[in-house]
Write a structure and sequence with these properties.
Largest sheet: 7 strands, parallel
Shape: globular
Distance between the termini: 63 Å
Strand content: 15-25%
CATH class of the domain at 3-182 and 216-240: Alpha Beta
Structural class: alpha/beta
Strand order of the largest sheet: 3-2-1-4-5-6-10
Bound molecules: nicotinamide-adenine-dinucleotide, 2'deoxy-thymidine-5'-diphospho-alpha-D-glucose
Radius of gyration: 20 Å
Order of helices and strands: EHEEHEHHEHEEHEEHEEHEHHHH
Low-confidence stretches: none
CATH superfamily of the domain at 3-182 and 216-240: NAD(P)-binding Rossmann-like Domain
Helix content: 40-55%
């Protein structure tokens, strides 16, 4: 295995993963196909652009001829390309079905035709749906996605495993927990709250803020994907998590504390429909392969917050243009309603 095709490598996790491949495997050649949607940017990999082992191709994973050509030049595929934001999927899911489901199918067909050595599909813990207190999902559990994003990922996850069962395609599926770190588009909770706090704007916390997420640092997530690329058993899924459980309100408070901003910036707003209360993964299977996370919650959050503090040019650019329309659509009425309630109370 020497030629790796990464999809979605201009996004958050993908850019860290491409950088890791080039750093940890000097003999590898990496091709990154990315459509450069609002969530992807070549800025995320400027430091490796001049590396002769790296090639960027702007393209869509639904473009069958392009995908066939790139797959014919690869030994292995790691697929991260996706529409990834739950709130956007609740507003309009067309692109999620197109990219996450059909795009993955196009990649699988090309991989099968070319006899690819390994296909790592980056799925998510959201495929299990909400998990009750006291329980952690195992890879054998049924998939019960509860929002359009999660459903599109579950469909692709199952397609991948079906291609192993039906055609012996050497697929490995990862199901990772909530990830934080540099270069995450500021629509997701942590970068949104950090950049809002830096601008002294309210932090829109959904509902009571007592939902639970398990936070993984992006470098740890990428180390796990690297391991699965080389050591994962074909036909198997692997949970990736860190046991860094926090209520969302605790995350918001920790961000404000790190930035020296007042707690009064927190605004309880109308909840996300179908909001999964808790995710929790049993990740003993990947631990048995020799992986465990290196970063605890506090360290990971401090590094993340510091990066946004030092890279205002990056997030100001991300928050310009269409972002403002999305922000207004998602938060305008929520923040107005919260302000009205505060005035009445
Ligand atoms: P992201 O939104 O930051 O990046 C997605 C990338 O995919 C972008 O660069 C975008 O341009 C590209 N893309 C979108 N549609 C495409 C298409 N049709 N063809 C080619 N490229 C396309 O996402 P992320 O947070 O880095 O997530 C990467 C993967 O990891 C996703 O598959 C996601 O479901 C999964 N995941 C994310 C998390 C998390 O917390 N961020 C956790 C678990 C799993
Ligand atoms: O769990 C893995 C998933 O994590 C990935 O598969 C997704 O691609 C990624 O977007 C992320 O999904 P979440 O919905 O969990 O992440 P998000 O950052 O959007 O939300 C985290 C929590 O914060 C969730 O409980 C909703 C809450 N939240 C989010 C936003 C954007 C708020 O309270 N307010 C907000 O404005």
């Amino acid at each position: 295995m020497r030629r790796i095709l990464v999809t979605g490598g201009a996004g958050f996790i993908g850019s860290h993963f491409v950088r890791r491949l080039l750093r940890e495997h000097p003999e590898y050649e990496v091709t990154n196909i990315d459509k450069l949607t609002y969530a992807g940017s070549r800025d995320n990999l400027r430091d490796v652009e001049g590396d002769p082992r790296y090639r960027f191709v702007q393209g869509d994973i639904c473009d069958r001829p392009l995908v066939e050509e790139l797959v014919s030049q690869a030994d292995a595929i790691v697929s991260l390309a996706a529409e990834t934001h739950v709130d956007r999927s609740l507003l309009e899911a067309d692109d999620f079905i197109r990219t996450d489901v059909h795009g993955t199918y196009v990649l699988l067909c090309a991989a099968r035709e070319q006899g690819i050595e390994r296909f790592v599909y980056v799925s998510t813990d959201e495929v299990y749906g909400a998990v009750p207190e006291g329980y952690s999902s195992s890879e054998m559990d049924p998939l019960r996605p509860r929002n359009p994003y999660a459903a599109s990922k579950a469909a692709a996850d199952m397609l991948c495993l079906a291609f192993f069962a039906s055609y012996d395609l050497p697929v490995v599926v990862s199901r990772g927990a909530n990830t934080m770190g540099p270069c995450q588009y500021p629509e997701k909770m942590i970068p949104l709250f950090v950049t809002n706090a830096l601008r002294d704007e309210p932090l829109p916390l959904y509902g009571d803020g007592r939902q639970v997420r398990d936070w993984l640092f992006v470098e740890d997530h990428c180390e796990a994907l690297d391991l699965l690329l080389h050591e994962g058993t074909p036909g198997e899924a692997y949970n990736i998590a860190a046991d860094n459980y926090r209520h969302n309100i605790q995350v918001a408070e920790a961000i404000l504390e790190l930035l020296g901003k007042p707690r009064s910036l927190i605004r309880h707003v109308a909840d996300r429909p179908g909001h999964d209360r808790r995710y929790s993964l049993d990740w003993s299977k990947i631990r048995a392969l020799g992986w465990s996370p290196r970063q605890g919650f506090d360290e990971a959050l401090a590094k993340t917050v510091a990066w946004y503090g030092d890279n205002e040019w990056w997030w100001q650019k991300a928050r310009s243009g269409d972002y403002q329309d999305y922000y207004q659509r998602q938060y305008g009425w929520r923040l107005e309603a919260a302000a009205r309630q505060e005035g009445e109370g």
